[in-house]
Amino acid sequence: MNTLSDDLYRDVTDFAHATPHWFQQLAEVWTEAGLLLFGVLFLAGWWRARYAPNGAMALALLAPLATAFGYVVSESLKSLVDEERPCRAVAGAPASLVPCPPIGDWSFPSNHAAIAGAAAIALALSWRGIVWLTLPMALLMAASRVFVGVHYPHDVTVGLVLGGAVAFLVVKAANRPVAALVGTARSSRNGVVVWCAGRGPRPRASTRPEGVRHGAY
Questions:
Q1: Could you tell me the end-to-end alpha-carbon distance of the chain, in angstroms, rounded to an integer?
Q2: Would you say 51 and 132 are in contact if contact means Cβ atoms under 8 Å apart?
């Protein structure tokens, strides 16, 4: 496994050094900017759910929470597996495009990939159709961590799967109780609480002509 991952790492980093400078800079920016874009999508998902049913708002609120759980699980596993970063451990590989993380900041699994995988799945569960955006975002973010030279391919693969699985389980387990909390918040007399939770679906306008009573002819 290590030999295969080392070889893949060398192939990717060799390719990275052969790409134009602007492309390398784009990869360096994306490895962090992707996290910010996921944050923007969380906010957009919350905003669009303010007039949605309680369950939809619960999913929107759970998306960032489930992503945080994905990160915590990944970081906990990272503290148990003392895998050195490939930018120090792989002989014959070119220098990483970004500074190699310090000793003690272990490589397995990739927290960036875990966050990306968790965010992609959590958003897909809360926002129909957005998986076609979030999944490519997550894959590109994971790939960029190998491209810039700070992770092995198996680090980001496990990170993606782990983060996505944790997010899925958290959302499915917590959706019902959080939906109940949303319903309680929406009936609150506190304006700030109601604004944050949203008012729920707008009542449908009556289609009956004004002044015509039920049963009148």
A1: 81
A2: no
pLDDT digits (tens, 9 = 90+) for 120-164: 999 999 998 899 999 999 999 999 999 999 999 999 999 999 999
Compute the distance between CA of residue 178 and CA of residue 92 in angstroms, rounded to an integer: 51
**Per-residue pLDDT at 210 exceeds 70:** no
Dist CA 128 CA 119 (whole Å): 14
In this structure, are residues 28 and 97 in contact, taking their beta carbons and an 8 Å threshold?
A: yes
**d(C-alpha 193, C-alpha 199), whole Å:** 10
DSSP string over the chain: -HHHHHHHHHHHHHHHHHS-HHHHHHHHHHHHHHHHHHHHHHHHHHHHTTTS-HHHHHHHHHHHHHHHHHHHHHHHHHHH--PPPHHHHSTTPPPPSSPPPPTTS--SS-HHHHHHHHHHHHHHHHSTTTHHHHHHHHHHHHHHHHHTTSS-HHHHHHHHHHHHHHHHHHHHHHHHHHHHHHHHHHT-S-HHHHHHH---SPPPPP-SPTTPPTT--
